Amino acid sequence: MADLDAASSDPLELVRPHLTGPDAAEVLGAALGAADLRLDGWRVDSVHHRVGRSLSVLYTARVGTLDGAGHDLALVAHVDRQPVPTGPVEVRVAGVAVSVWRFPDDPFLPGLPSATSASRVRELLDRLEVPPGDVGLEVRAYRPSRRAVIEVAVHTPGAAARVLYLKVMAGARASRLATVHGELAAAGVPVPGVVGVAPDQGLLAIRALAGTTLRSALAGDQVVPPADALVAVSERFAAANLTAGADPARFADPTRHVTVLAALCPDRRDELEVTAAIARAVGGPRVPVHGDLHEAQLLVEGPALVGVLDVDGAGEGWLANDAGSLVAHLEAVGEVWPQVDARARRYAAEVAEAYARLLDPRDLARGAAAAWLGLATGPYRVQDVAWERFTRTRIDRAAAWAARAR
Prior knowledge:
By secondary structure, the protein is an alpha+beta fold.
């Protein structure tokens, strides 16, 4: 493998090409060899870069055994500035430690193996006094080293399946998040109800909510709530007494995306730095917010907004970042589903206008610019075949919103 430049200010970014290009075969092959397995093929499924902290690459690997049988495994290669818990195989890439593990054996998420085992989930549900029934599991989300969401369907004869979700988190976040759910519910925010917590495993069980996502409704050209209904949700957040909230302002800092985007599009570095600086200057009300508000977090039934999902990052932050994020994501619906582009843009404009009674439009523009910078990292993260074109288009969108902020 090629040597890495140890003097770089961001060695994680220098490691990235080795884990996403041809060199990854050596890393994965060495890790599998320690378990007497042979690497027969692989592909990158997603790339997760927490700037200055860690880099994770999720693969589907085709592996063979000594007897010739082959099967697929989900593997993760992870580089971290902090110590990695014991368990994964360690492979050295030009002096840099790369930890490799199989899903679900994530050393940062000790509850994940239990959450993906039907028998162990049934034992957990028994402790939480969930009615008996056969358990079906489906992985809905997985961010290596950070979190996972498992859909649990409990099947009983003659009845519709009961659905709930297990959120798997690191550290003591499960208990904190249960408190956040309760505090938001008390403020009238329609968050899922908590079934129970297994704090030692970092597991939070929550009830499923009715409705479809606003994203699906908009993309399917269905009835959607009026813009004022979305603003009303932000007002309910603002009225909540969040004692266990996170720090959404830190999460929303757009400058954290510049390193990754500049590596993907080096010719845009100066523009990215200017855009991020403008977006970072967001102001206006600092109140309890969702922290990652977008159209896939909102559940609707026709014109009614009936649910709010994924409040892990809720806490005191800038209202303009929540509003700008929602507006930018609504615009992005039209990029992904061109047949509803005009409607998505029009709806996004209506939402922006509705938020104008709470915000200076320039602050909303800064929030939208910040959100588009975050969205620009998405095509590469999920390894879209046209990721460079979409990345550049989204950088353009961020710059356009930053210009409006001026």
